Task: inverse folding
């Protein structure tokens, strides 16, 4: 299970376990090895581990440099996939919903390695997915927002109906276009809640990928809410 620690991963895993068609051997998460945090989400690896322990599925981490090139990223991922294949794992699960290019990229990378890709949430209406997430009793907090879509006030908010109601019209309710990222700390997957307290909210800018054709801005800006283990 490709695991970000967020909302879509959690709902995806819940559906897979409920259906019982696959045995989930690992939660696989990319980690920024410089800061020891979940890549892009910014959540401390200590909380990621507590999350996996509460779910009861072993965690595997992929250590990535601060801002890896696509070449470096693909090399590291290929090595990890080969490692996993050696354990007779033949499928990998993603929580993607509707980004066609991303799905095609994943399939193009993994199919030649004889790893089959599974997308349990694919093409399900995102409003429907959000309603299901909330009705099941999952609890999540916003840990990162893209300033192109949301302002600082959304960072650190709990995902509930009030949060959904406040989202601008141009923002996908599940944040599928990268508008925001979340950390799930309780729900039907968990034996017990993952305890934390909110820390400071910080702003970070990142260089655009070299293959990005957009030239009007040189950097991406994001707000992150630091979560502190307790």
Result:
């Amino acid at each position: 299970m490709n695991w970000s620690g967020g909302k879509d991963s959690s709902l995806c895993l819940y559906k897979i376990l409920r259906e019982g068609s696959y045995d989930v051997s690992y939660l696989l998460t990319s980690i920024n090895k410089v800061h020891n945090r979940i890549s892009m989400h910014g959540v401390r690896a200590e909380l990621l581990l507590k999350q996996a322990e509460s779910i009861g599925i072993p965690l595997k981490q992929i250590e990535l440099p601060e801002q890896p090139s696509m070449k470096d990223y693909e090399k590291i991922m290929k090595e990890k996939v080969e490692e996993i294949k050696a354990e007779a794992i033949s499928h990998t699960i993603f929580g993607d919903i509707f980004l066609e290019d991303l799905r095609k990229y994943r399939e193009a990378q993994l199919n030649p390695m004889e790893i089959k890709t599974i997308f349990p949430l694919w093409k399900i209406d995102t409003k429907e997915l959000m309603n299901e997430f909330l009705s099941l009793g999952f609890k999540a907090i916003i840990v990162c927002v893209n300033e192109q879509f949301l302002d600082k006030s959304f960072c650190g908010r709990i995902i509930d109906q009030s949060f959904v109601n406040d989202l601008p019209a141009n923002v996908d309710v599940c944040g599928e276009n990268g508008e925001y990222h979340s950390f799930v700390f309780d729900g039907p997957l968990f034996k017990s809640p993952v305890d934390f307290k909110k820390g400071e909210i910080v702003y970070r800018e990142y260089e655009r990928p070299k293959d990005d054709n957009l030239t009007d801005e040189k950097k991406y800006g994001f707000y992150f809410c630091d979560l502190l283990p307790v």
Q: What stands out?
A: Strands lie at 27-32, 37-38, 59-64, 91-93, 116-118, 139-146, 180-186, 196-207, 219-229. The first helix runs from residue 7 to 19.
